[in-house]
Amino acid sequence: MEVSGEQKKKVIFSGIQPSGDLTIGNYLGALKNWVKLQNEYDCYFCVVDLHAITVRQEPKDLRRRTLEVLSIYIAAGIDPEKNTMFIQSHVPAHSEASWLLNCYTYVGELSRMTQFKDKSKKYEESVAAGLLNYPVLMAADILLYQTDLVPVGVDQKQHLELTRDLATRFNHAYSPTFVIPEPYIPKAGAKIMDLQEPTKKMSKSSDNPNSFILMMDPPEVIRKKIARAVTDSLGVVRYSDEQPGVKNLMTILSVITGMTPEEIEAKYEGQGYAQFKLDVAEAIVKELEPIQAKVKELLDDKTYLENIYKAGAGKANYVATKTLRKMQKKIGFIPVAK
Ligand code: TRP
Asked: What is the model's pTM?
């Protein structure tokens, strides 16, 4: 509800796919920042299950992960009262708007998307058409809520560019319909890298489990993975591009503890990596323990979760349907008879 005299809050939309278990990369790079946005913005945080099925998902895993991602949102500190949290497939306007927008999107621009090119190499023979159309669905997600700002990592910037192009194209073909969204790059944007190949982004889809730390990894697994994390033979804790493994561990420690890289360098001067690695592992364990406990509690209380995603879908549906009706009307569809 808008209060007169008070400025309308800017709208933020973001989502995570339930296509793999979340890593600390998702948490430190995205979720932890979302928590900070909730007071200042009108936030929509979605579990994008429609995106997840662009590659084949085991139904029971998809169900489990969808609720787990939602629980992680809440456990990480996203307040269900202040934000709209929902499951993408619960709001049919996403699928509908996606079809409409597909008809304003060129195959050429979709096949040029870097992510599509990478993924279609990986799946070769069985590239689903959904993989090609994926960014159009993402555009629908964003545009339906008249989103001002989209917190995204660098890997999604191209998709956001396409979203802006589609919005502009539609607005020009008819009349102003969509807000043109801007990327929101947080000031302290943390990109967490792969623990085994620290020049690559940490990804839940890596084949080597030592490459990532999952949000739900137990403490002993976290300790083992950090102990095995690739460093170098220099033996100095220094924040430098020449030491990507050490730099990554420093980033993790810095985002969790608030210490600056300089402070970390000073603390471990002349000490090699042993104590540093132990401390990184302990910091992660301490940060994740309360979140993991809360996630387990939430997953045991299905009624509570149900109430949250039901209320979220209700709020989202209202806003999204309004935009969808506008699109349909401008395109020239006959409104459904009342
Ligand atoms: N494509 C995004 C990713 O894989 C997830 C996503 C779907 C998203 N819809 C979105 C992100 C809308 C921001 C806004 O990371």
From this structure: 0.93
